[in-house]
What we know:
Elements: H1 3-13, H2 19-23, H3 33-56, H4 67-75, H5 99-119, E1 128-131, E2 135-138, H6 139-167
Antiparallel strand pairs: 1-2
Helix pairs in contact: 1-5, 1-6, 3-5, 3-6
Amino acid sequence: MRGKEVLFIFKNELSKYSSQQLQHIPKEGVWSIGQMYDHIILVAHEYLDNVEICAASNEKQPLGKTLAGKKLFKDGGFPPIKIRLPDEMNASPNNSDDREKLAKRVEEVIKRLEHWEREVASINPNYKVEHGGFGWLNAKEWVDLVEMHSRHHLRQKEALESYLEKEM
Length: 168
C-alpha cells in the first residue's frame, strides 16, 4: 500500500462520523477520532518537511539507521502494538476540527505526498535527516514512513470506532 492510499482511506471514511463522534474522547488517556486525524496529518507534514530538507541538501550523511530504524524498515511497518511517546513529545492533538476541515487537511497532505512520491527518485539517497528514534533517513525513507505511520493508525481507528459503537 502506498502512503496516499492509506490517507485516502482516512479521508473517505471521515464522512461516516458526526461532529460529536469526531470529538468524543472515550476515556482519559485515549484520543478522539478527530485527535487521531490531527496527529496523522501533523506527523505526515513533519515527515514531508524532512523530505524537502533532503531535497535541498548538498551534504552527504554517512550515518544510517538505528537498530530500531533497521527493524522498522525490514519489517515494513510498526509492530501491532500501542506506542506511547514520552509525555514531552505527546501533547494532546487538536480536537476542534470538523469533518470538512479534516478532509481538507488530509487532501493537502495527499497532494504534498504525491508531489514528493514523483520527485523522490531524483534525490540523492545520501542526503539524510535524523529521526529521533530511527536514525538517519533519506527522502525515500521519509516518504515510506508517512505510509507506515498512517497505516499503523488504522488499528487505532478501529479501536476508537468500537468505543463509538458501545457508547454512542
